[in-house]
Design a protein that fits this description.
The chain is α+β, with helices and mostly antiparallel strands. It has helices at residues 87-94, 98-116, 135-142, 148-155, 210-218, 226-235, 241-245; strands at 6-12, 31-42, 45-53, 64-65, 68-70, 82-83, 121-123, 126-127, 158-160, 164-171, 180-188, 202-208, 253-261, 264-271. The chain is built from 7 helices and 14 strands. Residues 30-230 form the Nudix hydrolase domain. Its cofactor is Mn(2+); Mg(2+).
Length: 272
């Protein structure tokens, strides 16, 4: 399905959009980040794992989001055991160098485990079905006591890059005080694993059909940032989780622009 090159969102000021105080100064430098869209087949169609971020957080407080976060410099550790498409493949899809591609993929696996308890790892030819033995390691990853590479090596596990697919590339508007250069991945929930909300960054979480999440946003029951809203609208077009992860994707950078109009902000999303 071909998407238009420009989208316009009209949202209230403060609804997940902040503007920096020094509007005439240079914009903040974006931090590399990874987001993972977890999908599964539900009784009535595709379901997406969503989290409600704790209010008051510096970025996206109170918003409903996919698991994800910033890249740790240790995510680029080349010693990590790896199965699936090599960093060079991810670099070609996301338009970056191999070191960053490795770091982004590792960050995607690490953040997914930290925030949802889903671990995209196993043996070279197998995928974990039971992650309960790694509960302490999950906490240690979240507090940065250990690196992903260190954890996987100690546990004898292999990162399964083949469970991930590239989905999108978003960069936070220049007008915002905190900016992220975020690559979106998609992954199907591994058989036997369960996603939870056991993270300090979320006040709640759960699975929901994308169209229901959008309906909740339209009716004021949740708040969605434009990347989340648009991604959910794309996901609503698919019948099964396999359809989602097998969908061909052309990854282009989407760079929004904020335009204040009284008590609302027009968010213009331009694909580049």
């Amino acid at each position: 399905m071909e998407q238009p090159k420009e989208f316009v969102f009209d949202i209230p000021v403060g609804a997940g959009v902040a503007t920096r105080a020094n509007a005439d100064g240079p914009p903040a430098t974006p931090k590399d980040a990874a987001t993972v869209i977890l999908v599964r087949d539900g009784a009535d169609g595709v379901e997406i794992f969503l989290q409600h971020r704790v209010k008051g957080m510096p970025f996206a407080g109170g918003m409903t989001v996919f698991p994800g976060g910033g890249v740790d410099q240790r995510d680029a550790d080349a010693s990590v055991a790896w199965a699936g498409p090599e960093p060079s493949w991810w670099a070609s899809r996301f338009g970056c160098d191999e070191s960053l591609a490795r770091a982004l993929t590792c960050a995607a696996v690490r953040e997914t485990f930290e925030e949802s308890g889903v671990l995209l790892a196993g043996g070279p030819d197998s995928v974990l079905t039971d992650v309960t033995p790694y509960a302490a390691a999950r906490q240690a990853l979240e507090t940065r006591e250990v690196s992903l590479a260190g954890f996987l090596a100690d546990a004898g596990l292999t990162l399964r890059a083949d469970l991930l697919r590239p989905w999108a590339h978003w960069i936070t508007p220049e007008e915002e005080p905190r900016r992220y250069d975020t690559r979106f991945f998609v992954a199907k929930l591994p058989e036997g694993q369960e996603a939870d909300g056991a993270t300090s960054e979320a006040s709640g979480s759960g699975w929901q059909r994308p169209e229901d999440a959008i309906a909740d946003a339209r009716e004021g029951r949740r708040m969605l940032m434009p990347p989340t809203w648009l991604t959910l609208s794309e996901l609503a077009e698919f019948a099964t989780a396999d359809d989602v992860v097998n969908a061909p994707r052309e990854i282009v950078r989407i760079a929004p622009t904020l335009i204040r109009e009284n008590d609302h902000v027009r968010v213009v999303l331009e694909k580049r």
